[in-house]
Amino acid sequence: MTIEPPRTRPRPIPQAVGLGHTAAPPNFRPAPSFDIGEVVGAVWRRRVPLGIWLALCLALASWYLAVAPITYTAATMVILEPRQALGPAPSAAQSVAAQALDVAQAESQIQVIRSERILASVFDALNLQEASDFAERGPGLRERLAVALGFADPSPLNPADVRARAFQAFTDRIGVRRLGQSYVLEVSYQSSSAEQAARVANATAVQYIKAQIDVKAAAALQGTEYLRGRIVNIEAEQRAASEGVREGRIPDMLFSDADARIIGAAQRPLNKSYPKNGLINAFVLTFGLVTGLLAVAVRHALDRTLNTRRQVREALGVECLGVLPRVPRAREPRRNALLPFANLAMDQPDSPFAYGLRNIRTGILVAMPHRQRSIGIASWAHGEGRSTVATNLAYLLSVPNDTVELIDADIHNPTLTAVLAPQARAGLNEVLLDDASAPESVSISLSAALGFIPAVSMKSEAKPNPNLNLGSERMTALLARLCATRDVVLDLPPLSAGSDARALSPHLDGIVLVVEAGRTTIEEANEAIRLLQSSQGRVVGVVLNKSRRERLPKSRPR
User: Fold this and answer.
1) pLDDT classification of 8: cutoffs 50, 70, 90
2) CB 193 within 8 A of CB 214
3) CA 122, CA 112: separation in Å to the nearest integer?
4) Which of 32, 135, 314, 531 is the least crowded, having the fewest Cβ atoms under 10 Å away?
């Protein structure tokens, strides 16, 4: 049987896009613009790696809190109160001048407390060289490396150096500061033991008081104003202060001859001062969130893939007919992976996938309002969901009064044929090569209003003709014959795999380009449109497939 040449039928002048849009040139780059919805969408699409990064940061913080040495801080409060020297009573002006303290004198008392004489007395009185905080732990990694490289002496330290190191570490733990503009000084000490922290802080404050009493005692003994009664009191204060230094506590005595008074003894800390769990967790969480969002922002700025309707419209200059969600893959062989989705829009009519596909159908019908239309479903590469869209669209277009013919035009990779007609004995390949073959003879009924023409025979020995031209007159006549009575939906080969889709595009009423969200780049989509344009094909619009912004819910029983 010979297929007659097609009858000429008015068809729209091929345009780059449907719904009145103009195509973008191949080197088109959209002007940068800010869209909060697009930014939120970028964060949402990468929520899994962002969540993993935050979890890793919190895990790192937990590990640090578990291994970091715990430090307790105890503080003693000392107030500066200048006393009158022993001897004849001074005049009123002299008394006021003696009791006045300027800022420089108050600051100098801080350095007095931190002086080596006072701290060394506390260090020796409490025998802190044997404390666990300053125990010799042997050379560290840096020291061992220096010895190995010959930059350090491998001989052990002498006792003087050991004491010097321990004393230096002790002084680093002592803190003295002035509270605001007052004459109150805070003497603090950090230790891994709460009891030791309070003991050393109290001993340091008492040693400071004792040093002042010692000065007054020396002045009293050497002066002409020697008064035996006062000397007895000073000696008692000295003994009490010395005992307080040794025991690390505040004596129950008023030191009337000192120029300072302890107003708050250091108590055993109830909570550690370092590491601070809340502060570290807050910092790590903030750091993880900021760096994660920064990484998402950089990734989004460098991302050249299509992800949103807005990107499709601005970067391609083509109308986005609809967005389809990513659906979970069934555990099927690769060739049969399409099987669960072949009729998904009909099986789950309330799903986001079916809703998006109905929007796509409406956009196609608006762009091509005439009946008996031929619609090609194209993509740039394999695996972008072209066959799934073609099959479900054909099912939606097929109604009792409007029959549809679905054609698997991907002869070299017949995915639809393997799923819908695995036992096919003949297909499009045989119809185009054999003059006697009629399309009706190879069409397989999928429903009352939907027929399917396989690509090739699925017999193991059958192979498609590599020289078959889908843009031949025979293919044009086949399309005209089918379009005389029904709509035709064609699953076209990917544009990156060959020129079959380009050869067939001038003979179709419209082409829908399927792009995969997060995979198809702007350059690839622009190149696909350019190839179709150069072949006089009419691109109706773009379908954004496998979007991560929508999820397919579980089907509900009906």
Assistant:
1) very low
2) no
3) 14
4) 32
Q: Are 87 and 223 in contact (CB under 8 A)?
A: yes
Mean pLDDT over 62-85 rounds to: 81
101-136, pLDDT tens digit by residue?
Answer: 567 777 888 888 888 888 888 888 888 888 888 776
pLDDT: which is higher, 469 or 459: 469
pLDDT tens, 494-526? 999 888 899 999 999 999 999 999 899 999 999
- Report residue 506 as tokens: 């001038």
The CA-based dihedral angle spanning residues 408, 409, 413, 418, taken in that order and rounded to the nearest 10 degrees: 10
Long-range contacts of 84-91 (CB under 8 A, 24+ apart): 85/216, 85/219, 86/216, 86/219, 86/220, 86/223, 86/225, 86/227, 86/230, 87/223, 87/225, 88/225
Angle at 25 between CA 22 and CA 26, to 5 degrees: 140
Q: How many whole angstroms separate alpha carbon 283 and alpha carbon 187?
A: 29
Query: Model confidence over 427-449: pLDDT tens digits?
Result: 888 888 876 567 777 888 888 89
Q: What is the pLDDT of residues 9-68, one digit of tens each?
A: 444 444 444 444 444 444 444 444 556 766 777 777 778 888 888 888 888 888 888 888
3-state DSSP call for residue 177?
strand
Q: Which tokens go with 280?
A: 């570290």
Residue 326 · residue 48 · CB < 8 Å: no
Quick one: which of 333, 498, 514 has its CA closest to 422? Answer: 333
Chain-centre distance for alpha carbon 462: 51
Closest by CA to 538, choosing from 413, 367, 418, 397, is 367
pTM of the model: 0.58
Question: C-alpha angle 98/103/109, rounded to 5°?
Answer: 80
C-alpha distances out from residue 389 to 268, 380, 416, 529, Å: 73, 14, 11, 18
| Residue 552's pLDDT band (cuts 50, 70, 90) | very low
- Residue 233: the pLDDT is 72
**Dihedral sign for Cα atoms in the order 522, 523, 526, 531:** negative
Q: Please report the sign of the dihedral spanned by the C-alpha atoms of residue 185, residue 187, residue 188, residue 193.
A: negative
Q: In DSSP terms, which residues pair with 77 in a beta bridge?
A: 186, 264
pLDDT of residue 520: 92
Cβ distance 360 to 321 under 8 Å? yes
d(CA 555, CA 552): 8
DSSP codes of every residue in 482-538: HHTTSEEEEEPPPGGG-SHHHHHGGGSSEEEEEEETTTSBHHHHHHHHHHHHHTT--
Strand ranges of the sheet holding 260-264, from the earlier edge strand across to the other edge: 174-178, 184-191, 72-80, 260-264
Q: Say yes or no to pLDDT of 282 above 80.
A: yes
- Residue 482 and residue 409 in contact, taking contact as beta carbons nearer than 8 Å: no
d(CA 164, CA 215): 27
